[in-house]
Design brief:
Structural class: alpha/beta
Radius of gyration: 20 Å
Strand order of the largest sheet: 7-6-5-4-3-2-1-8-9-10
Strand content: 5-15%
Shape: globular
Distance between the termini: 30 Å
Helix content: 25-40%
């Protein structure tokens, strides 16, 4: 897994889109995140979306597939199923992913993996560039506490992960299967055990991610997160075929502070939520000032028109200090850092 990159941005690999952006031309999203439903069968303590009313809304599959065809023609390259709820609870998620694959999209899934099994798994796994399983407890008891589910879900998820890995190799798929654990002050040695166990299941990577609080969720850790060096035993579980990554960027407040003064990444990304609304990014779901419109009211070209987007971008441009409005190390932070550097080059750039 030498080519795996879990942090930062890959925006510099899209030179044509960057060149258009530099010239001030219209850019359509390269990546669209999709929340097929706001319903979830877990209730994780730290969930960034628990402040949103969960009424088991489901995106209209036929309308979403129409939007996919439009997005593909406009240059969108990838779709990431995540967001408000558990994507696999949508009864037509297989149809949606199959249609997207036929259109040529790269697709990825973030899931708690409770429904990643049987016919559904067999149907969707061949269409996935990667699958990331959220496994935020290191033992059955810890998992039940964090995910707020019966402890039996822990072994069920482990069984589903193993089956997904076996199907991957049976079909000769290139799908990357990874596990991510949000660190909530569990003993480091328990993380080591968890990393070893998922390694032995055959997954491609294990990621331990520092808890990133959402301002609308009151959950907070009782203890500060240990220094990054303390996680070294977890990283040592890695092998030539198994990548272990520490997503610990928030530990250094200086590096978390934004060097950029504006959110420049807006043209490259969008998020479609379960009721059809399209937002700038996940942390501001439900905030109308960050909403472009609804795919049930207009086509995407109209929604992404200058006149329609100006109201959102003008509002965001008026924000004096993004650090007081947006989460640290947000989803678009890496892209913004790269774009800010391009827009504000250092002196003597010809001395490469």
């Amino acid at each position: 897994m030498t080519g795996l990159q879990l942090d930062g941005s890959k925006i510099h690999h899209h030179m044509e889109a960057l060149a258009r952006w530099k010239r001030g031309e219209k850019i359509y999203p390269l990546l669209v995140e999709v929340s097929p439903t706001n319903g979830c069968n877990h209730a994780c303590l730290f969930c960034a979306y628990d402040y949103i009313h969960r009424d088991n809304t489901f995106l209209n599959a036929d309308r979403l597939i129409e939007i996919y065809a439009e997005l593909r023609a406009l240059g969108t390259k990838s779709l990431f199923y995540s967001g408000e709820g558990e994507p696999l609870l949508h009864k037509r998620i297989g149809d949606i992913m199959k249609a997207a694959a036929e259109l040529g999209f790269d697709q990825a899934l973030n899931t708690n993996a409770t429904a990643l099994k049987g016919k559904l798994m067999e149907r969707i796994l061949p269409h996935m560039t990667f699958v990331r399983v959220s496994l935020n407890g290191v033992t059955a008891a810890d998992y039940g506490r964090v995910h707020v589910v019966p402890e039996t879900h822990f072994e069920m998820v482990m069984t589903n992960i193993k089956a997904a890995v076996e199907l991957k190799y049976q079909l000769g798929l290139q799908t990357t299967i990874g596990v991510q654990c949000v660190y909530l002050n569990q003993p480091i040695e328990d993380l080591v055990d968890q990393a070893r166990r998922v390694r032995d299941l055959g997954v491609d990577y294990y990621s331990v991610k520092q808890f990133n609080p959402h301002p609308e969720n009151p959950f907070a850790l009782d203890l500060p997160t240990p220094p990054a060096d303390d996680f070294a035993p977890v990283l040592e579980v890695a092998t030539e075929d198994f990548h272990v990554h520490g997503r610990l960027g928030l530990m250094d407040p200086a590096s978390a502070k934004r060097p950029y003064k504006q959110c420049l990444s807006l043209p490259f990304f969008a998020e479609i939520v379960a009721n059809g609304e399209v937002y700038t990014c996940g942390p501001h779901l439900g905030e109308k000032d960050f909403c472009y419109g609804n795919i049930h009211d207009m086509d995407f070209t109209t929604l992404w028109s200058d006149a329609n987007r100006d109201k959102v971008e003008a509002y965001i441009r008026r924000i004096d200090d993004l650090d007081h409005v947006c989460m640290p190390n947000c989803r678009l932070d890496g892209i913004n850092r790269a774009l800010w550097d391009l827009q504000n080059p250092p002196d003597h750039v010809n001395f490469i």
